[in-house]
């Protein structure tokens, strides 16, 4: 049986980024807890074909490979920086390219970053409905981190680390239960 994969997608447009660092942290925790392989991508990894694409077939092969990994992942970790109260437009464009059934039943950890606490509901008011459309299994614990939770390019907030660990534990339980059902079928 091939090794399972956990995939992270960051909606950030620049590097280095707190959002990608945050997503990588969560992906790493999921991989450590499950023994899965890990991969994290951001919008820049999709390359120049991405912005003009209207369907997955319009993407260059490296970007299509990212979509394939995402579709085959055991668990997804998705996150975006907050821009004007929502996720980035190109983050949404990425998910607009996907088949509506491609994430059905897939465990998804929701995360976001922002400059302050006033944007903390992005995960509930923006991300959760987006993945509800896909009928994904969004994990109950979502994680929002603000600028004050990072220092010198690292996640330093113990409260945010604990919340991330809670979401990871929930995702691992969901994936394990899903695998048990799949094996029994």
Automatic annotation (TrEMBL):
Coiled coil: none annotated. It comes from the Bacteria. Pfam families: FMN_red (PF03358). The keyword Metal-binding does not apply. The keyword Oxidoreductase applies. One of its GO terms (molecular function) is oxidoreductase activity. Residues 6-148 form the NADPH-dependent FMN reductase-like domain. InterPro entries: Flavoprotein-like_sf, FMN_Rdtase-like_dom, FMN_Rdtase_MsuE-like, NAD(P)H-dep_FMN_reductase. Keywords: Flavoprotein, FMN, Oxidoreductase. NCBIfam families: FMN_reduc_MsuE. Belongs to the SsuE family. This is FMN reductase. The gene is msuE.
């Amino acid at each position: 049986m091939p090794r399972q994969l956990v995939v992270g997608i960051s909606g950030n447009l620049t590097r280095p980024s707190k959002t990608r660092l945050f997503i990588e942290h969560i992906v790493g925790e999921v991989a450590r807890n499950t023994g899965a392989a890990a991969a994290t991508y951001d919008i820049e990894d999709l390359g120049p074909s991405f912005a003009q694409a209207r369907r997955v077939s319009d993407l260059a092969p490296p970007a299509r490979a990212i979509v394939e990994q995402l579709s085959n992942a055991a668990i997804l970790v998705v996150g975006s920086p907050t821009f004007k109260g929502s996720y980035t437009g190109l983050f949404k464009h990425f998910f607009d390219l996907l088949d509506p059934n491609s994430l059905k039943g897939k465990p998804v950890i929701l995360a976001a970053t922002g400059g302050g606490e006033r944007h903390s509901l992005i995960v509930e008011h923006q991300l959760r409905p987006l993945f509800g459309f896909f009928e994904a299994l969004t994990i109950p614990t979502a994680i929002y981190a603000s600028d004050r939770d990072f220092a010198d390019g690292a996640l330093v907030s113990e409260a945010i680390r604990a919340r991330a660990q809670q979401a990871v534990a929930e995702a691992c339980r969901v994936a394990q239960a899903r695998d048990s059902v799949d094996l029994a079928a």
